[in-house]
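Appendix B, Record 12. Input sequence as logged:
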Amino acid sequence: MFAMMLASENIAFSAALLLMLMIALLEGVGMLFGLGISNLLESVLPETDFSPHAEVAQLDAQSALSRFLGWLRVGQVPLLMLLMVFLLCFGLLGLIVQNILHELSGWLAPGWIAAPLIMLLSLPLVRACGGLLQWLMPKDETTAVSSESLIGRIATITLGTAAYGYPAEARVKDQHGYSHYIQLEPDDASHVFEQGTAVLVLSREGAIYRGIRNSYPHLTE
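Logged structural output:
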């Protein structure tokens, strides 16, 4: 099995599992020292393809992206958790499929063919696992409320750095005191929100919220 994982055709799947283990290790170390895992990944995660940071030029493309992110349960489950689920599903499913193919035919599918196919097959698993995580999460982490009801509330950037066109993950509480994870970017192109910044949510376009830095001390999350 170890030789199978090191085969050139399976490098992408093995690397995904290794990355997931590294993230889990960093999270554990961060918890011991009272640090957030997002501090350690801030310089990496915002640039990955799994974080919805691609700037959308057309409204129809933005609508499609919003529907896709919603389908993956982004905003319902913390983004870092979804990333780890994706890496796990992609890595394990890839190795399992390649192993079955090897047992049946004696050869492995080339990585440039296998990786995109396994990625597509992993997405429904990520959605299913995200739904399970959402169900298992404490009720103070997620609840069903109108997306529009979060406008006018104070959010805190929890993962990455938010710039105009490049949203970051933020936590916001609804009228019941429950927390939600949203994708948030500045309303002004000249502003940047670092991790920990308190932001007043002003509007929403699809799955992306926009806001300004909270300059009102009496308004808290």
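The helical segments are 2-6, 11-32, 37-41, 59-71, 79-105, 111-136.
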